[in-house]
Design a protein that fits this description.
67 strands, disordered N terminus
């Protein structure tokens, strides 16, 4: 009964859950219909903008003009002086008395001409790279400036023209002449080697062939003040005025782009420039910048609402790469004209954070954390979106993905997964949370596999050829963020937190047949692993490097081809397919468009998050491919279109690498600036042995795409330094020759450009050539002195030579005498040694004789015992008596005593003198003990028993007064 109740409740619970989920989906659809009137008005897709505020460049707020030199360094006329920017460092150079720089122009020699109030001249670099100012206005003769402020500077042929409203000045490189005009000229333009000027009194005029007089050129058809004259096709002119845009062809005039022109008129145009001979850019006082093509279509519009710091445009110019720089009433902006990415950033805080986007059936769909939005999209336009667009909300839940498969659009949100068809949102199933959906083939059958909050869901094609929900796969319950199907039909699932799963389905594709879990790729890697496909090969990302699956070992192995070719993107979080062999790799820094083939892996372009100047993370960044070969970028509150066709175009301008500053410094901080030109080999004295090299690489659009490598040849063998710093320091260089090398390396590790700078550190003075020559001179003087000194010494030496010879002969004689004495001493020593040997020999002879006689006596005594009466007593006693008499022969002892006394320095005499009560036997015993003989030998020599010797030793110790602790033998040996 309990089992039946359990089954009943489980069945009902599943039923109620299904009903509840469907109710939620129905309510969401009803809400989308009720709130369909919620509209978000949008503007145009515009280029990326990088802004530089006063806090960046630390100078005046207002910037009046902008120009670039041949190296790509940017210059700005600022309230506080001349601003210089090389991509990393901002430098400010002031005019005399701190005047405002109104106008800037850089000529081919990189002289930076500037204009100010009653002052104009040029800045130029010294050989050491420092800037110095030369006043040209101070050279004026026969002309007095009267409130003249230089607003324009133009170079034409060999002349430099400085224009104020009522005067102009011509400089030929040496002299300068001033001319005052009868009318007030407001704007000046250079077109096709001709200078055009506009005045309200005479309209547009042209500088004549004598380069001194302006001749009137236009009639009054053009309304308003002309702020710019631009070249137009067929040798025409485009006149940008405060009354609109006009085309001049010969003597005929016509309005240009009247609809856009009316908008620009309201914004009060102030500056105009032609970019790449195709884009007309107009800067205004009230409403930022407008860009048009030559057909008159508005390409984009930038103001404070979608990127600019300020709406008042005071100066326009392009850098060497073709991007646009804007000097404004407040701040500076760089507009990435050459970037293939255009962004739409006017929806901040209106529709939430964008997570997904797609285009289908002339509609643009955007998925955010606040719901799904829809806008009309004109696919016929070559530009991303050129008309104003408006969004309407379709749903309210967090959207995770919008995916277009086989011309069918799907999106997944918190509630479930839906399809969009004929402007209708159709729920596909009741499973909560649609994360991702991918197409693949399993057991020969084409399917869609979807990852959700809790299950894997399968979709198949119905009889109409449309994708529809089939079933949720049984025996697998996990949240799946990413999913892929490999060529063998295995399903690879990326869990939100627990690694990845490899799943094999049963033949009916209904449930899991086998599953293998990889909690992490390696012991060092994190548990979060994402799965994608590159060229039909499954690729795994663990934020450290790329991995793939090895079918033979059935393990995950490093994907060396990608790791080696994309070192900067080994920490990618996602991979998005663009087209055949083309993929976006996304990491925390940006996204790279990469071409991957069997032969090579090449980075075609990169988009860095730092260019957006907003907080963008890879988790909030997504890229979707559209049907018109454009990529949709979603990041934060920005939406972007990337034109993939731009990726194959080569950049015509190569950014130069050059030295901005080279200086050497002593240990005490004294600085010596060296020339930055490396054509010569420069040398410094030894105390300036601390070097600093500052390089300049004004590549503004590709920041983050490259790094610098420094190498100093000759510095402790080899030394490299890598990184993004543009300063290289080397300390305590020893004397020698060096070559400093700087290289720019791209994200693939390839060399972009390089420079070298040879220099030398001279040895200290004590080791220098002058010092060496001084040493040689001193040595020659010393040698000369030595020769004279030796000559004088020779004379003196000769006089002493005889005396020295006599002394030598005397020394020889003394040496011979010493030799004779030595020989006599040796003879005496030999005699003493001989005497000693005689004593030893005598002692041994006595010992041997006594031993023999004792032995004979013992033998006779033994024979007498054995023979008894047979051996008569008289014969026995006679022989014994004879033996006893010969055991102690006095002559032997006398000889022994005489020789012993000679060798041992009158031993007996001294002993007798010291101890007068010693008997002759005592003296004999003392001599034998001094010879260190044994008791047995002493007994034999003295013809007594061993006990008698001990008794004699005892008596002798008493007579000598020696205690029992003192060795008697040692005492006698040491006695003198």
């Amino acid at each position: 009964m309990c089992d039946l109740l359990s089954l009943f409740f489980k069945r009902d619970l599943k039923f109620f859950k299904s009903v509840f989920n469907r109710a939620i989906i129905t309510i969401a659809i009803i809400n989308s219909l009720v709130f369909n009137a919620f509209v978000v008005r949008a503007q145009f897709f515009t280029p990326l903008v990088t802004n530089y505020s006063q806090q960046h460049y630390l100078a005046g707020s207002q910037n009046w003009s902008v120009a670039t030199d041949t190296c790509g360094v940017m210059y700005f006329g600022n309230n506080n002086g001349l601003l210089q920017y090389d991509g990393i460092n901002w430098d400010l150079f002031k005019l005399p008395r701190g005047k405002v720089v109104r106008s800037v122009m850089v000529d081919v020699n990189n002289q930076v001409f500037v204009g100010s109030f009653e002052e104009f001249g040029y800045f130029q670099k010294n050989m050491d790279g420092t800037m110095f100012y030369t006043s040209i206005s101070s050279k004026l003769k026969d002309y007095k400036m009267q409130n003249d402020e230089i607003w324009s500077i133009i170079r034409l042929n060999k002349y430099i023209y400085f224009f104020s409203f009522n005067s102009y000045f011509i400089y030929d490189g040496e002299t300068v002449l001033g001319y005052r005009t009868s009318d007030s000229r407001i704007s000046f333009s250079l077109v096709d080697n001709a200078i055009y000027a506009f005045s309200e009194q005479n309209g547009l005029s042209l500088l004549n062939d004598q380069m001194k007089i302006f001749n009137a050129r236009t009639d009054r058809f053009v309304k308003g003040v002309i702020v710019g004259v631009l070249p137009f096709h067929n040798n025409g002119l485009l006149l940008v005025s405060k009354g609109g845009l006009f085309i001049q062809q010969g003597n005929s005039y016509s309005r240009f782009a009247p609809d856009v022109s009316d908008i620009i008129i309201k914004a009060n145009p102030n500056k105009a420039i032609l970019i790449s001979d195709s884009i007309i850019v107009v800067g205004t006082i009230l409403n930022g910048i407008f860009a048009l093509d030559k057909s008159g279509s508005l390409l984009w519009h930038l103001n404070t609402e979608n990127g600019l710091l300020n709406n008042t445009i005071l100066g326009l110019s392009t850098d060497k790469a073709g991007d646009l720089w804007v000097a404004m009433d407040k701040g500076i902006s760089m507009i990435h004209i050459k970037s293939p990415l255009k962004v739409f950033n006017s929806i901040k805080s209106k529709i939430g954070t964008i997570y997904a986007a797609a285009i289908s059936n002339h509609k643009l769909y955007i998925g955010t954390n606040q719901g799904l939005y829809e806008a009309d999209y004109d696919t016929s336009s070559n530009n991303a979106i050129t008309n104003a667009i408006s969004f309407k909300r379709l749903t309210f839940d967090h959207v995770w993905h919008i995916t277009k498969i086989d011309n069918q659009l799907f999106f997944g949100n918190n509630a479930s997964t839906f399809s969009i068809a004929n402007d209708k949102i159709i729920p596909l199933h009741h499973v909560n949370g649609g994360f991702v959906i991918k197409k693949g083939v399993i057991d020969g059958k084409e399917v869609l596999i979807e990852g959700t909050y809790s299950q894997l869901v399968m979709h198949t094609k119905n009889s109409n050829g449309e994708w529809s929900f089939s079933h949720a796969i049984e025996n697998f319950s996990n949240p799946v963020r990413f999913v892929e199907i490999d060529y063998q039909g295995n399903i690879w699932c990326s869990h939100l937190h627990k690694g990845i799963y490899k799943i094999r389905l049963t033949s009916d594709l209904m449930s899991v047949q086998s599953i293998k879990h990889y909690p992490s790729i390696s012991s060092e890697s994190a548990a979060i692993v994402n799965v994608f496909k590159v060229n039909n090969r499954v690729v795994f990302l663990d934020l450290e490097q790329f991995y793939t699956y090895d079918d033979i070992s059935e393990t995950l192995i490093p994907f060396d081809k990608l790791n080696d070719s994309l070192p900067a993107y080994k920490n990618s979080r996602a991979i998005v397919e663009v087209s055949l062999n083309h993929y976006w790799f996304i990491n925390d820094v940006g996204a790279a468009l990469v071409k991957v083939t069997d032969d090579e892996v090449v980075i075609l372009n990169q988009i860095m998050f730092s260019n957006f100047q907003i907080d963008v993370s890879a988790d909030e960044f997504a890229i979707m491919q559209t049907s018109d070969l454009r990529s949709l970028f979603c990041f934060g509150y920005l939406l972007g279109f990337y034109n993939n066709s731009f990726s194959t175009k080569k950049i015509s301008y190569k950014t130069p690498l050059f030295l901005k500053d080279v200086h050497a410094q002593t240990q005490k901080g004294v600085v010596l600036h060296l020339p930055v030109i490396s054509t010569n080999h420069y040398s410094v004295s030894h105390q300036y042995n601390n070097f600093q090299f500052t390089i300049s690489y004004p590549n503004f659009a590709d920041k983050g795409h490259y790094s610098f490598r420094y190498f100093l040849d000759g510095y402790n063998g080899k030394q490299y330094a890598d990184g993004f710093s543009r300063i290289a320091n080397y300390y305590n260089l020893s004397a020698g020759d060096y070559v400093f090398q700087a290289k720019v390396i791209d994200e693939s590790g390839k060399l972009v450009t390089e420079l070298s700078y040879p220099f030398s550190v001279n040895p200290p003075f004590l080791l220098s050539w002058p010092a060496i020559f001084l040493y040689i001179g001193l040595m020659l003087l010393l040698l000369y002195w030595l020769v004279g000194f030796i000559h004088r010494r020779v004379v003196k030496t000769n006089s002493k030579l005889l005396h020295e010879q006599q002394l030598q002969q005397h020394a020889i004689l003394m040496e011979k005498q010493q030799t004779i004495m030595s020989l006599e001493n040796e003879k005496l020593e030999a005699e003493l040694n001989h005497k000693g040997k005689e004593i030893a020999s005598t002692a041994l002879s006595i010992i041997h004789k006594n031993e023999v006689l004792s032995a004979i006596k013992d033998e006779l005594t033994e024979q007498k015992k054995n023979l008894g009466v047979h051996y008569p007593n008289k014969y026995f006693e006679k022989i014994i008596h004879l033996i006893d008499n010969n055991l102690t022969v006095e002559n032997d002892w006398v000889l022994f005593q005489t020789n012993f006394d000679l060798i041992h320095d009158h031993f007996f005499r001294n002993l007798k003198h010291t101890y007068s009560d010693l008997s002759p036997n005592d003296l004999r015993l003392c001599a034998l003990l001094r010879l260190n003989l044994t008791t047995k030998n002493i007994a034999s020599l003295m013809n007594v028993s061993a006990k008698g010797v001990e008794i004699g030793r005892y008596r002798l110790r008493k007579k000598l007064g020696i205690s029992s602790e003192t060795s008697l033998t040692n005492f006698l040996i040491e006695f003198k």
